[in-house]
Every structure is written in structure tokens, then in C-alpha cells.
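Can't attach files on this board, so I'm pasting raw text. These are the components:
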Amino acid sequence: MIDPKSLLDDLTEPQRAAATHVDGPLLIIAGAGSGKTRVITRRVAYLVSQGIPAWSILAITFTNKAAGEMKERIGHVLGRQVRDFGRLDQPWPTVCTFHSLCLRILRHYSQQVGLGATFSIYDSSDQTKLIKEALKALDISSDNFSPATVHNAIGDAKNKLITPEQFAEGARDFFHKTVARVYTKYQALLKQNNALDFDDLLMRTVQAFRDVPNLLPELQDRYQYILIDEYQDTNHAQYLLAHALAMKHRNMCVVGDPDQSIYAWRGADLRNILEFERDYPDAEVVRLEQNYRSTKTILAIASQLIANNTHRKKKDLWTENADGDKAEVTFCQDEHDEAEVVMRRLTEFHAAGVPWGDMAIFYRMNSLSRVMEESLFRNKVPYVIARGTEFYNRKEIKDVLAYLRLIANPNDEVSLSRVVNVPTRGLGDASLKQIAAWGIGNQRTLFESLAVAAKIPGVSSRAGNAAVKFVELVKKWRELAGIRVGGTSDGTPLAPSSGTPGEGWGGGSVDAANSAEISNADSEDSQGNADGSNPHSNPPPEYLKRGPEAGGEIRVSDQASLFGDESEWDAAPLDEEESIADEPFAPSDEPFAPPDEPTVATEDSALSIPPSVIPPMPIGGVRNLMEEVVRSSGMEAHLRKTGDADLSELKNVEELITAAAEFDKEQPEGTLIDYLAQVSLVADVDHMGDGGGSVTLMTLHAAKGLEFPVVAIIGLEEGILPHSRSRDDIDQKEEERRLFFVGITRARQRLLITKAQVRTVRGLRERTIPSPFLRELPEDYLKVTDRAGLDDIDARGGYGGSASRDDHNAGKLGFKRGQMVRHPTFGLGRIDEMTDTGSGTRAVIQFNAAGRKTLILEYARLEKVG
DNA sequence: GACAATAAAGTTTTT
DNA sequence: CTTTATTGTC
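---
Top answer:
C-alpha cells for the assembled complex are below.
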């Protein structure tokens, strides 16, 4: 099996301490480049080697990519593949994102939670659509309440597990009171659509922990060893969720680095990691401070920068790596010059033998990539831009997926209205509105209304016929997908989702004993509950009761109040259709199959599987269904006719079909719902890969977790990095500094940093102010080049040349009307006009090539000619 | 119902 | 200066 010794051989002392910690809380502060992933992987393997059943291990990551990589690496160390069918009941370690975990839980317990098995999952654009609808329904002008703003406020509330009722209660001012109304309406709309948004996945799961008896205890016993990666990025909902799961066995291992927290704006709460030791006073703390990635120089720069953050635990990164070269800081003239500088330098590295794929360019915002791209393109430097969600955000892709979602969930009106007229079938907005209105008046869903649209008065016969035809089409597809027409489910038991039977997963006799015990406990529990009583009438377990702290800030250390005040929760019932849960809950005998006995849908177990209503898989797989949809919906023909000349849309759709075929192959038992679950929660799907032989361009945020031998960071200017929106907020400013820190620590060997003296932002060409962060870097480790002209002491950020302001000003005296001049960017020109203003002398110059420009003499690096 | 004109807004974005 | 979404017109 696994030899614990070989697992630990090549680890350092602190790494080993972390990897061999078994029981009890553990905090791993993992500095940048400290071998975090390696430690996590080894620890999982070590646990298994100690006889801990693999399926009782839960590792939570933030991205699917991270989960995939970790699965792969764990599998590698353990010598067997870690598979994942996206279900709760699987005999191997669970490695997934928070959202995926929640989805698994909600689907597994869908009956008890009061959700159908076929709810849709709304991404942020769906959310925005629905919020717009809510605003409209409430007759709120979007002038003062932009959907984006409201969207943010609601998302924020959900991250903090604040229900609409609580939100309304706490709303003091007009804005919050209005948002409260929208929030309430929005939730109602979600319910009506039988949909959850991303944030709901978390929130509903935490609610289910409180409201559904036995659910939490079952999960607690299932996942006895919990590991959370990137813990500094968890929000409040995730925090509660994880700690609720860990509460019983207290085997909670969190890994993170406060200095790399860059998602506070998205609800991440840095206190989660800073206060872990308060939550678990008995926690072991391991600090990984040795860096294996970067040169001493790069590390020194990063360290000195981050030391400027005040809200911070001190950490001393060190390395045995070489000193390395100085970082190159270049003050460029403008963004074009900047791009040239970077491009030329990268080209030089390439000529010296560095592969393109080893280099990356980071920037604060996507808009900065453009000029950079042009420069690379012009000079034939291969590059890729990492924009994760690009593919799945394409219209044609979203359309196809909307069709599939509609097939799975006809109540999903966001998807329905998205595709009902794609391609156009004579069913326009006006007709749709009429039909929808009729439906509201007659208590019919939109889909039901469409079915009888031909008989609705006022609806044109053309629209009516189109609607009926559309409904027929969807029904046909539903049949193809194995969903009984007219019914919501056919109750077919779900297929076994366990993988390769036989091979013991985390085997050993200890495991078998453990799992048997757990299985027994489970079935006892379930029988206790399966006596026909409504689970919801049971009082919640003792530990779920009790009072809240003020402001919804419930910390784990106050374990009794983890779930807040009961009455608070009562204000937020799960769903009115809780009556569904009247049916006794009969969980599987082996909801969490032990390794040697994978779940098999025998006659017996078919009964014991929770009565989930997951539709069987489409005949011929998802791929077949998708192809049929694309063909018979007319999408294919439409794209062929009206799409781009190169048929790129069609190619994208074909790519989606290929991916679906892949899914069919990997998960032969996978259903349409499984597929949708996967694509809903997967935005990037290794789509971008590793840059493969090209320079990688990406935002600083996207760079987290990656490393490159050569890194360039551009746009070190006030208002860009730090971003202007963080101007007056010290916490935000510190986050910007962390962002820069993350960027720097991605570099292994070489670091380039650039700043443009003039930059065109939103069409306005303006002088820039250097980023204050530049001044925080240790001069000794920098090689500063100033191409921008020595005209402004500030522009150098305190470094560089010796020319004084006086030198330069002296030169300006000789300018007057009619003078021929040369400008570094605009070339030759003649001064047409000069005016003295408070802020300096302006000259209107007619350039030969660049046209007429107004420049401030003091700043423009003009040279007299003739 | 399709297209063009116009207006508004424009950090970052793991799911 | 862009891109995107909504409006208005044919």
C-alpha cells in the first residue's frame, strides 16, 4: 500500500509536521511558493496510509481547476485514480469546490430540503436578468438602482447568510429598504423558476443543516477529515458551512495565506483565517515560510512591499535559492512605449533560450491588455489571454445550455425566454408578454401557457402556432431525455454512481470496520426518522439552537450559536412546499459506500435510495440530446445562415457537443442533470490550459496560484494599481498591495515592472502619477530605467537620475509661437499658439504626422528644432 | 421582427 | 475610446 515513510522523505520539518497531523484542528499558514499543494497532497495520502477511509476525507477548493489538479495529484500519490461523478455517495475522497459540495448535498437531500431534483442554477448573468425583472415588477426605476448595484447588495447579504426578512429588518435607509423589497421579490422569482443562484447553493445548504434533522450529523460522520484550501478567501457562509461540518470530529485543516487574500470585495472575510486560533484554541499551527519558487531578490522585494500592510500577521519568507537578477523597473513614456519595452525584453529572454510559455504579463484590469496584445501581435510573439469564462459566456453556448436547462426544468423561465425565439420563430416580445400575462391571470406557468397559446385571445395565430410548436419540440426532447411528459419525475431510482467496484479505496481492515460502523449508524438514524413523521416537526438538535451575536457575526468559537437565533431562521422558511417532505425520508443504507461495497442499485437498495427524481440519462447520452436540440431547434441552420462568415459560432457549438461526448464517455451513468450541474459550476474547464508555448497575459487576480520564470507587471500607476476605487479605503488599499504582492511572488527568476508616464484611459490621454507601491520597493534590488524623460521628480517614484527640475524648466524658456519642435511620440510639429494657465503653459502644436495637439510644455518632452 | 442609431457606462470575478 | 444595451424606425 502506501509507505508513510516515502511520503515524507522529501519534506522539510514544518512540511512534515503539517502532513502528519491527523486529528484535531490544524492551521497551515502557507507563504507564497512554500510547497503548499505538495503538503496538502501528502497529508491526504498520509491520512489514508494511517487507515483512515478515503471517502471520509473532504478537500474543498475554490476553483474546479484546483480541485482537478488536487484530485490528480492525490491520485498520483495514492496510486489510483480519484474519480468524481459529482455525487455525494462516492467511495473515494471528495475533492471539490464549496459550490459543488453544496449542490451535491442539496441534490442528495433534495426531498428533505424541499427542492425538486431538477432545479436550475443561475449564473450571474441569469441573476442580473432576474433582478431586472424584479425591479420592473416592483416598478422601481433603475436610474437610482442599477441592477448591478442591487445585485451586489443581494449577493453580499447572501454571503453573510442574511435572509430577505432579516435584510428588511435591518434596513434603515431608503436604499437598503428598497433593496430589501427587490431581494424578497428576487427570491420569489427564483423559486418560481425553480432555480437557485450561486449564493443560494451555500445559503440553502447552511439552512438545511439547521432545518433538516439528521442531515448535518450524517454529513459530519461522513466527512471526518476536512481540508480547506485558500482559506483566506472564504466568506461567512462558507465559514459556517465548513465549521458546521467539522464541529463533531473537529478534524479541520485549513490552508491559506492572509497576504494573498485578494477577494475581500467578493465577500471573503480575512478574519476567518486570522481568528482560526480563536475558533480552535487547541489548533496546531504550522507555518511554511521557506520559499522554493523565487530568487532572493524577488522575495526581498515582495517582503518589503507587503510589510507596509498594517493589518497583518508578520511572516518571514526566506529561500535557499540564488540571489538572482535585479528586478527591472522601467518608467515608460506611454502605454505603447510600455508595451514595446516589455515585448522587447521578453524577446531578448526568448533569444537567450527562455521559452515563451515561461513568461507572463500581469495587469490590474483587462483593458490594459489591448495595447500589450497589439505589440506582441505586431512582433509575432505568440501569446494567449487567459480569460476563463469566455467560452461559456458566448451567446450560442448559453443558448444551447438554456435549451438543455429548459428541458430539465420547464419552470426555468429565464432559460425559456432566452431561447423561445432563438432562432426567430415568429414569437416576439409582444406576443410573449401577452401569453405570460394570460398565464399569470390563469395560474399557469409560462411553459403551460405557451402550450395553449393558440387559444389565448389576443394572441396572433402566427405566434400561437409558433408557441405550440415550440412546446411540442421541448416535449419531444424531454422524452428523448427520458423525462416523462407532463410529469415532473418518474421516480426511477438513480443509477449507482460509484466507480470501479472491487479495488479497495483506502482499504485495509480498519476501513471496513469503520465504514460498517458508519453505515449502521446511518441506517439507524434513518430508521429513527423514517417512521412517517414530518422531519420538520422535529425540534432541531440541541446544538443548533440558541442566540446570535449582534450583526449576524456568528463565530465558531461560540459554537452553541453557530446557527444563530432560531427565530431568525424561522423567519426564513425553506420553502412553502415543505409538505413534499411529508414523505418519510429513507436514506440509503449505504449513502456513503465503503470502498469494498460500492453502491449498487439492487432491488433492495433501490428502495433505500432517497426518492430523488433525477431524470435518467438521455438515450444516447447528453451528446445525442444536444445534437438533436441544435438540429431540430433550427439553431444550426440559423447559425449557418446568419452567423459569422467563418462559422465560428457553429464551431463553438460543435466544441460544446464534443465536450458533452466527453462527459458521456467519462460518466456513462451521468444524467442530463449531472451534466448541467457540471457545466453550471464549471466556468473555465481547463479550457485555457497552461499557455502552451505562448506568453500568458492575465489579470493579477487570475495569476494567483500560478508561477512563471519571467513575470512582467504593467501599469504601476496611481488609479490603476492601486485602483482608483480603493482610493479612500485603507483596507482596500491593502488589498491592492496584496494583489501586487501576489503578482511579484509568481515570478521565479525575473521580474519586470513598468509604469507609463502618459496613459490613455477611456479615450482620455492623461499624465499619470506613479503608484505609491513603487516607493515601497527596496531600491537595492531594482534596476530602474527611465525612458520617460527626467521632467518630474514624482514620476520617478523617488529613484533614478540626477537631473533636477530646474534643468528641465530652463529648457522650456525658449519656446514661443512658430517654434519648430520634436515630440518623442508625435514627431515634428510647429507651435501654433501658447497660453499661460494656472497649471502650466499650454501650447497648441500642429504636428506633421499626428495632427493638432494641446500639450502642457512643462510635461511634454519637447525638443527645439532648428 | 430586424436593423440601425443612440445612450450609458466602463476593477478585479474562484462559483 | 470602447463595448453593450436599449430604443426607435422601417
